[in-house]
UniProtKB/TrEMBL annotation:
It comes from the Bacteria. PANTHER family: ALKALINE PHOSPHATASE LIKE PROTEIN (PTHR42709), UNDECAPRENYL PHOSPHATE TRANSPORTER A (PTHR42709:SF6). Its main location: membrane. The chain crosses the membrane at residues 12-30, 50-72, 137-159, 171-189. Residues 30-154 form the VTT domain. Pfam families: VTT_dom. It is a multi-pass membrane protein. Keywords: Cell membrane, Membrane, Transmembrane, Transmembrane helix. It comes from Aureimonas jatrophae. This is Membrane protein DedA, SNARE-associated domain. The keyword Ligase does not apply.
Length: 218
């Protein structure tokens, strides 16, 4: 079983990192961060290339956020809230996220990846608010690089130290699998709990459809 897990991560690790982070960045409660950490630890064990993991996560995060931006810019609140309700994204909560984006402007995109909920809704909120796309792309790509580098190389260093201590013991990979599953469950629960904890401040107004700024994507 352990050998099968290692083989799966070795064969599909880069694709799994890319797909999971891309989906998470479009707004889905997918455990992209957990998978990235697991892949980084595997790289520390010498099973994956840490630089390829970084590139996969960076590109996926940037593309995923831009996909969310397009959806928000092109289809507006009705589309986001229609499907977001299934994930617990109410109009008041989405308006709260938009208010934070208005408060800080495009630079909030730089740090949004490090904050649960904002990471998932970053692109969509920037799109519905019509942030200028080139400014969004700049801060988004830079923020994705900082986030990917922090988690990828941080997990890599951790995995490298574990490998030195356990000398390649196969039980280390069993422990890794348990940690991965735990992080996956924790990510989903944190996402749902975070949505519940967002303030429902009455009827916070959503931004107007077709607001100022941004290129025309229609």
């Amino acid at each position: 079983m352990t050998e099968q897990l290692i083989g799966f991560l070795q064969q599909y690790g880069y694709g799994l990192v890319f797909v999971s982070i891309f989906l998470e960045s479009t707004g889905l409660p997918f455990p992209g961060e957990s998978i990235l950490i697991a892949a980084g630890i595997m790289a520390g064990h010498g099973q994956l290339d840490v630089h390829l993991i970084f590139l996969a996560s960076w590109i996926a995060g940037t593309l995923g956020d831009n996909c969310g931006y397009y959806l928000g810019h092109r289809f507006g609140h009705r589309f986001i809230l229609r499907y977001g309700r299934r994930l617990g994204i109410t109009p008041a909560k989405y308006a709260y996220v938009e208010r934070e984006f208005r408060r800080w402007g495009p630079p909030i995109v730089l740090v949004a990846r490090f904050i649960l909920i904002l990471r998932q809704l970053c692109g969509a909120a920037a799109g519905t608010l019509r942030f200028p796309w080139w400014r969004f792309l700049f801060f988004n790509a830079l923020g994705a690089a900082l986030w990917s580098g922090t988690y990828t190389y941080g997990a890599y260093l951790f995995g490298n130290q574990v490998d030195r201590l356990l000398h390649g013991n196969p039980w280390a990979y069993v422990a890794l699998a348990v940690v991965f599953l735990g992080l996956t469950v924790a990510t989903i629960l944190r996402f749902r709990r975070g949505l519940k904890n967002l303030p429902d401040e009455g009827e916070l107004p959503l931004s107007e459809e077709g607001g100022e700024g941004g290129p025309s994507l229609r």
